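Readers outside the structure-tokenisation community will struggle with the description of the input data as it stands. Showing the layout once, in full, would remove most of the difficulty. For illustration, here is how one protein appears when written out as sequence plus structure tokens:
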Amino acid sequence: MTLTTKHLPISRDEFLTPFDSLFDNVIEKAFPGFGEEFGVTFFGNHSYPKVNVIDRDERLEIEASIPGLSKDDVSVELEKEVLSISGGRQDHPEDKGARYIRKELKRSSFRRSFRLTGSFDTEGITADFKDGILLVSIPKSKPDKPEKIKIL
């Protein structure tokens, strides 16, 4: 008796989803509440745009890859401690009637949000967009020095 298996091509998402879940679990165990602190979609699978979140001594940086869009197509907003990156561009008019053989480029609108706590200076947030990369820099608040009270 021979056992054969049919090899079906698996998609990139089918291949990477277990690794995404593993990464999410490792981060959640190592830093409980981290994903919750930065918003529900922080570690969401298939989130777009893909981001790097970099913790520096004096600031937190969110680096988002948004290829094919211009600075005018992207928006960064802060509302009630939630920083949102949004934007998008519609399909080109010449795309109507086109028959795509493969379509992987994202052209629909998007929104990705991050919850900021009181430990950031939200008035000092800056954003720069160059070569399809959005860099949002969020300064950390300086900790208040304890006030010395004179003992009488």
Summary: Confidence is low (pLDDT under 50) at residues 1-8, 10-15. Strands lie at 51-55, 59-65, 74-79, 82-87, 110-115, 126-130, 133-139.
